[in-house]
Design a protein that fits this description.
alpha/beta, Aldehyde Dehydrogenase, Chain A, domain 1, six-stranded mixed beta sheet, 17 helices, binds nicotinamide-adenine-dinucleotide, Ald_DH/histidinol_DH
């Protein structure tokens, strides 16, 4: 019996407990189908309770000094370091992540985020202080909004939870977070660690359940001041529409379809290995993953051959084995979706150079899918235009630089992109012309707490990490104090002229 089964998958007002909707929820290890935890979805009454608890905690938390909030976050980082082995094991089991990735990327990256916001909590300042009218001193304050309703996906459960929770609470807000119903474990561990770190009950609440029931109730709750959502573009549209009726602020981090542009002067070995890593990261279930490589014709054949070679070497296996490179996809249902994309591409004339099949033998109990390299697809086809969210890379050739950059911009998404070249002018032109929230030069996928992550176009708006994210969880107040001594304000006379002066 797992911890989730014993304690439930809800954390409300400082208490871990079971959901009461009588609508069952089962968390499964996608590498072998084993049940990890069972509970019921949160009921609407529990969403209300969680929001009430966050609302009650807001007054105290928003009035805590920046130094107090910072100290609590430093303590949280310490608590998370203490349980990092359990975090790694849970993240790996629930999300189907190879333990090497969870150990070297997810968990240390998440803890680094906590330390970054612990520092930033003491640096929230207004921009202007001056006498602009001649008769007033103006100042700007950044204030928290209140209760933030956040919704996260399953691909990086702890990291995305951090991107939602940390800027919100560092700025003095309180939060109700709904993790993906597929991967709630490490988010609950985060909430419990926060409690041990001395963050008051009610500041962080977790409600677990499906988007349709629990997510929708949270987005529509009248006491939620802002909705921060990370997930697919389709659901993001629904969330934005729902939030609009109450004029709630929204922050949307949505899907991606990142291009990977290789110019003919690129370091071929670096680009080929980079394309393999960037397309297979997290089994391709990464919003910034390289999905469309465009390669200038002189390098095209050699690039395809080199990427194919690397992909054939990638080892699928049990997520707990440090030698495993690729874990399963998140679920059998998602694997069917990925497989459907590849089969339709094959039917439409694309060539499957590597993969294009599910994992067999010892892997058949899990939702494994082989690294897949596709050529000869049409730029306008579904496999090139839609987010597949699996270990699938298409490669297409281009002739001149302009064409390569046009193809890179030719999808509705704009989250991230990379350009590979040894020419600084080409690199700068690519950085100028590619419409994406992040452009890497001679690399792809790296992120860092200090720098923003967020999209253009249908990839959404709003930034995670960095000072930009911190500011998004605040509202701006202008305070204007009169410097005029005595009882006469000249502008009052403009409205109603004093007697005898018309
Ligand atoms: P999803 O959109 O299906 O679900 C995301 C979250 O929304 C889940 O918690 C889900 O339960 C909830 N949800 C579903 N329907 C809802 C509704 N009607 N109202 C409120 N909440 C609802 O996405 P997913 O499959 O969990 O994650 C994969 C997607 O997330 C991909 O599209 C990926 O690109 C995107 N993603 C984006 C970023 C980014 O930073 N831009 C990061 C990670 C993942």
């Amino acid at each position: 019996m797992s911890e989730g089964t014993i304690n439930g998958l809800q954390f409300i007002g400082g208490k871990r407990r079971r959901g009461s909707s009588q609508d069952p929820l089962t968390v499964i290890d996608p590498s072998n189908g084993r049940v990890l935890a069972e509970d019921d979805n949160a009921s609407p009454a529990e969403v209300d309770e969680a929001v009430d608890s966050a609302k009650a905690a807001f007054t105290g938390w928003s009035r805590a000094t920046p130094a107090e909030r910072s100290a609590a976050l430093w303590a949280l980082a310490g608590e998370l370091e203490t349980i990092s082995d359990e975090l790694i094991a849970t993240e790996s089991a629930e999300a189907g992540k190879p333990v090497r990735l969870a150990t070297e990327f997810d968990i240390p990256g998440s803890i680094d985020n906590v330390k970054y916001y612990a520092g930033l909590a003491r640096n929230l300042e207004g921009k202007a202080a001056g006498n602009y009218s001649g008769e007033h001193i103006s100042s700007i304050r950044r204030e928290p909004l209140g209760v933030i309703g956040s919704i996260a996906p399953w691909n990086y459960p702890l990291q995305v939870a951090m991107w939602k929770v940390l800027p919100a609470i560092a700025a003095g807000n309180t939060i109700v977070l709904k993790p993906s119903e597929l991967t709630p474990g490490t988010t609950l561990m985060l909430a419990e660690a926060a409690q041990r770190a001395g963050i008051p009950d009610g500041v962080i609440n977790v409600v677990t359940g499906t988007g349709e029931h629990v997510g929708d109730a949270l987005v529509g709750h009248k006491d939620v001041a802002m909705v921060s959502f990370t997930g697919s573009t389709a659901v993001g549209r629904r969330v934005a529409a729902r939030a609009a009726s109450d004029v709630k602020r929204v922050h949307l981090e949505l899907g991606g379809k990142a291009p990977f542009v290789v110019f003919d002067d690129a370091d071929l070995a670096a680009a080929a290995r980079g394309a393999m890593a960037a397309s297979l990261v997290n089994t391709g279930q990464d919003c910034t993953a390289a999905t469309r490589a465009y390669v200038q014709r002189p390098l095209y054949d050699a690039f395809v051959e080199a990427v194919a070679e690397h992909m054939r070497e990638a080892k699928l296996g049990p997520t707990s084995d440090p030698a495993t490179d690729l874990g399963p996809l998140i679920s059998m249902r998602h694997r069917e979706r990925v497989q459907g994309f590849v089969e339709r591409a094959r039917r439409d004339g694309a060539k499957i150079v590597v993969g294009g099949a599910i994992g067999d033998g010892e892997l058949s109990a899990g939702s494994y899918y082989q690294p897949t390299l596709i050529t000869n697809a049409d730029q306008k086809s579904e496999i090139v235009q839609s987010e597949v969210f699996g270990p699938v890379l298409t490669v297409l050739p281009f002739d001149d630089d302009e064409e390569g950059l046009e193809l890179a911009n030719d999808t509705p998404y704009g989250l991230s992109a990379s350009a590979w070249t040894s020419d600084i002018h080409r690199a700068q032109t690519a950085a100028d012309l590619i419409q994406a929230g992040c452009v890497w030069i001679n690399d792809h996928v790296s992120i860092i707490s200090e720098m923003p992550h967020g999209g253009y176009k249908l990839s959404g708006f709003g930034k995670d990490m960095s000072t930009y994210s911190f500011e998004e969880y605040t509202q701006i107040k202008h305070v204007m104090s009169s410097t005029v001594r005595g009882s006469h304000r000249a502008w009052n006379d403009v409205i109603v002229a004093p007697k005898g002066r018309q």
